[in-house]
Amino acid sequence: MLELPLHSSVLFVLVHPHYPENVGAAARAIKTMGFTRLALIKPSRLAIPEHEMAQRMAVKAWDVLSATQVFSSVDEATRGSDLVAVTTSRSGVSSIESPREFSNLAFDLARDGKRVAILFGNEKTGLSSDLVDSYQHRIRIPMAAEQPSINLAQATQLVAYELFVTALKRRFE
What we know:
Blueprint: H1 5-9, E1 10-15, H2 20-32, E2 38-41, H3 52-57, H4 62-67, E3 69-71, H5 74-78, E4 83-87, E5 96-97, H6 99-111, E6 116-120, H7 129-133, E7 137-139, H8 152-170
Parallel strand pairs: 1-2, 1-6, 2-3, 4-6, 4-7, 5-7
Helix pairs in contact: 2-8, 6-8
């Protein structure tokens, strides 16, 4: 597997996930882009790495799933992070970056040995407005459809993809 500095610097954090399928699919999504750091904050009683459906959806990313840590708070999960970014599909939120724009900042930080955490909200409500407002870096995946959001694992995949592509382009700088 291609190992880039960004891979060990980024932590993907699922906040209050409801479905074990999304936990497993998120593990698979980040692994396909070379990332291995996944954390959960207060998952539902089913949305745990050990659940059969999480295992089934994690195809070839069982190592990521088994290393997934579960935390009780955002502060606990992101302790040691130099930058925390949130993802949101809410309209009216200021200072929005696309995953592509954010990936350049994340790359620069990783190159300097810094750690980055990216928070993803749950499948039903996303991240709370208070949590979104608490952080300077807010990522929104642009969408053309009137559907305001996408699946949690898909969002994780798209952000991981943009980070990976940026790291590939900029690795020889």
